[in-house]
Amino acid sequence: MTTNYTALYEEHKKLGASFTDFGGWQMPLKYSSELAEHHAVRQAAGLFDLSHMGEVWVTGPDAGAFLDYALVGKLSAVVDGKAKYSLICNADGGIIDDLIIYRFAAEKYLVVPNAGNTPTVAAELAARVKGSGAEGFDVVVENASDATSLIAVQGPNAESILLKLTDDSQHELVTALKYYAFTEVTVAGHDVILARTGYTGEDGFELFLPNEDAAALWAAISEAGAGLGLIPCGLACRDSLRLEAGMPLYGNELSLEGNPFEAGFGAVVALSKEGDFVGKEALAALKAAGAGTTSGRRLVGLKGLGRRAARSHYPVLKDGAVIGEVTSGQPSPTLGYPVALAYVDVEHSETGTALEADLRGKAEPFEVVALPFYKRAK
Prior knowledge:
By secondary structure, this protein is an alpha+beta fold. It has nine helices and 20 strands.
């Protein structure tokens, strides 16, 4: 497998980052202490390189109708300047990837897939341009991932840091930006797409820009945030932050073997939208069969009642019988107790249900709780 490096790789080396492979990318795992980085995001601000994520442009007269066909949601109904979370599924209803789609105009959308899934998603979208009929869709699918960097500033001080780097005339564009919305601004002299979609449970921003500008912007943000508690953060704390916020990770909570209903994303599937879409028949059958509600399994949050954490793939037990499996789990730095996401049989998925996790041969008590585990104060 080819190893990919972001435009900021040398910056991370200078900062002494420990690296890990993620989706074929060499990414910073942590710089010093993953615990310190986690707390920095919750209490001040963290700076992330997310350039391993993909950027696929969909443009043309049929852009909205095409995405309605290619994805499970109704993307044509999204307002300009807003973003929408969606899924791309196969014909059997299996999840190929979860995505964020940004609408710039009726004929212009940006699709952001997960790191290692980007080539697959780009290829799937290109193949689906043909549609299910003879004419297909009048759109162009362009994978711009190799030329694009993505930097995120997350935490309660994120807005203040960005305001130090934007002209007074653009301050309102930053402060008025709502969750799951985006705009185009100039930050530290660099034109960026500025989004507020986050993956940590905190307020924060994502900045899309060309690779050649990434190092200069990273340095400018680092300098502007130095007095506001900003530190560089790696994937280790990004994982603990997203877990506390109850957000899924593809490959853990989402996969081709799963479906949107058992993952708790039934509302994302627009079965009532006009026309056909890939996976519609299978997804309609799954919903009719009660997938994730009255049959099969359901993704739940588990709160540890002891000190030991359940990890991915650990069995979940009820009265000694295996009734599920942990998908993600670790001690929560913010809450002070173990938390986990797990798929369990629907009959054992109600909030308050007492369960156990098999931690290498020893059963530890857990309780089903509502998600997210952590929710920031507004």
